[in-house]
Design a protein that fits this description.
Elements (H helix, E strand, L loop, with lengths): L4 H32 L4 H9 L9 H4 L8 E4 L3 E4 L27 E8 L1 H7 L5 H10 L9 E6 L9 H11 L6 E6 L1 H10 L13 H4 L5 H24 L8 H27 L8 H4 L9 H22 L3 E6 L13 H7 L7 H20 L4 E3 L21 H21 L1
Parallel strand pairs: 3-4, 3-5, 5-6, 6-7
Antiparallel strand pairs: 1-2
Helix pairs in contact: 1-10, 5-15, 6-12, 7-12, 7-14, 9-10, 12-14
Amino acid sequence: MTDPRPHRRIVFRLLAALVVVSLVEGGSWLLLRARWGTFSFVERADERRADPTGSGVDVAARVARGPAAHHELHPFLGFGLDATDEGVPAADQHFRATPSTLRRRSPDRLIVGVFGGSVAEQVAATEDSPGSRALVRALRTVPAFDGRSIEVVCFALQGYKQPQHLLALNYYLALGGELDVAITFDGFNEVALHPFENAPHGVSPIYPRSWWARVGAFTPEVRRLRARLDLARAARRSLDATFARAPLRWSPTATLVWSALRDRRDADVAAAEADARAYRPGEDLPPVIRGPRTVPEDEETAELVAIWSRCARQMAALCRGNGVAYVHAIQPNQYVEGSKPMGDEERRIAIRTDHPYRPGVVDGYPRLLTAASELRADGIPVLDLTQVFATVEEAVYSDSCCHFNALGLRLLGEALGRATAETLRDR
């Protein structure tokens, strides 16, 4: 007769193991609830599938203070719009224009190209923007334009500074595009950005803003930072994938283990990201990043204005050679002393005494205005719009840098349009 006791021992051990597992799983469940307040396997599964920092984030972009989203390197312009980005309106040849940038002249329409940085982009980005509508209304007052449709084409982009406006015009003409009128609306980026963004890293004044960060991926240190961050993220994704498999994903104990390990992986990623953010290039940057050293550091503001002036002359000559009417205007800025009366609320929004761009405006704008008068003496129409808000009591600024609300953009468009119309009528 078979002894039943071995079977009883097996059953007893199974029951004991079940009790132990139940106690462990139950304790883990309580610990998970204590940690998160509530606990859901579905929520934890969603968390395992998510990458909080996004696997597509580039270290080169993370170390940059200036480069904006939706930009990509361009062989002639330095950078341009990334036309493949879903967050960017339809763009052609890296310019913000729809449906196509390349236009052809015709007797029944007037093609107006606007060049500059983010403020010019705000004014002319779309046909329905307050600045663009005001600009078109003012241009309609020119008798020679009577009966013609007016199309405003935006070649301006956030962060552009000379010589990018000049290069954008050259590039557009090289592509076969045509214009009737070219308007450059700039000044702020030309004198304010370099001292804070490129100068501390020894990058040439003529290079695009934050160039060291845009092409910093080519340096050994950034490659190391990128590899460290990529490895940390890969380790976290591998951990998540392991614990997302059955039966581990349904186990409170396994989830508790995953949670502890995930904390360590998150800490590794956070440390790698912190190093990337803190990174600043040393003195070993290659020439492709540093560029030519044309003047001593203490003469860079004068060189910035000289670059601006030379580019204005070249744009005027290029337009003249292609039968394009050219107008240049200097944009207003809140750090130009006495340029606008401000109430407490607007001052709170618009003024930061420690703003990193303020020194460039204070030092650079008087030099810009002097250079503008020299350009006018040589027959190049450079308009001073720095005082356009001198009698405007309402708030027009939208931030402490240089940008404007809807009222400010409308008034800017009107002023720019009036000045352009007067210049064209005179000519």
